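WARN no homologs supplied; continuing
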Amino acid sequence: MGAEMRIGLYQFPGSGDMGKNYETIEKAVSQAASQKIRFLAFHECALTGYPPLEVPSVSEVDYAAAAKYKECLRKLSIEHSMYIAAGSIEKEKDRYYNSMLLFSPEGRVGIYGKRALWGWDRDNFVPGSQQGIYEVDGIRMGIRICFEVRFPEFFRELYRENAELCLVSFCDISQTENKERYELIKAHLRTRAVENVFTVLSVNDISSFQTAPTAVIDPNGAVLLEMERNKEGLLIYDYVRSEDSFGMLGRKRISDELVDGCP
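OK structure emitted
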């Protein structure tokens, strides 16, 4: 079937110290390069810290420093011939976006701004407007952020665009251990994979107790790989495009009918 890609998902404790975050990301990129990883992903707001849990508010982020570190990430992507996806806060005049940045080995930077905003997100950000689908070595990949996993409509958009992979990046943490929430979010991820017949990649922050997994889930909802909770590290997955199973073909057939409005 062709397309193959080695994918890395790196979970680490984010903070409001951008220099420290970047240092961790840089070390992770070096580790990933030694493992011949082509696509490496980090959590929501991994570069800047997530407000107010890791940085007090968007107004207290040093955007000049953020621009410098983003340029460093762009150069790292080129140097290691690696796609790098990392969360950051983007500022446009007086508007702030909770964004995922996708750095390509050719030096391009894609931006996806989170659209499902509630609570702290609504206090700090405005919704993005990008579709969030990208070509990565000929593979169509969607990107979604945290709370969006609760809403199937955001993922149906990706199905309509023939996505094969979907990255969901989280800063979903709690001050106390919450296994029930962790399993609930994992169930959402499994459902999004099954109903849209694509592989889901998830990566989460661990600056406090982790309440969403860093994991790989196949189009049939099987959890192929999952990082140990609350432990920093790199999860490696070798994606290989394969033939659709009978059940996958059936889900696509009915989904196409529903998308076309004629069930």
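The chain has six helices and 14 strands.
OK
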